Amino acid sequence: MIKNKTIYGITRKRGKRAVAERILEGAAKQLMEQGYKAPKKAIAEAVQLASPMVSLRSENQSGQTIQVPIGMSVSRQQGMGIRILHNAEGGKGAGRYTPLKYFKNLKTVYSKTLAQEVVKVLNNDSSGAMAKRNSLHRMAVSQLGSRSVN
Fold this sequence. Notes:
Helices cover about 60% and strands about 10% of the residues.
């Protein structure tokens, strides 16, 4: 299970903990309205589903750079899942690093888009987070097949 502190990392920007808490509470309220009885568990499950199992690391081999798939620890998987989910929902509202003063309703926009992204991930709809995770897995599998054994 993912800790609440870790879940706040989904929405936390530049150390704004109170803003992150309000965004998460708004997303939880949206999920409650849509019929989810335990919204924080739903968010944690969405993070788990969006978490990739492997990452690609660049390596020099015989003068050429190749990408080598490597497994990740559980904490790194959760961190990547949080970043993937955050980037997927952040692209719909304001820009990822847009200052908060430019948007009056930024917290409601982010909470709505976060709730929508969580629902899409849980329902296995076409979500940006799952597309990113699947593309990472596809690249890792293709790199495994093209590696030459010396």
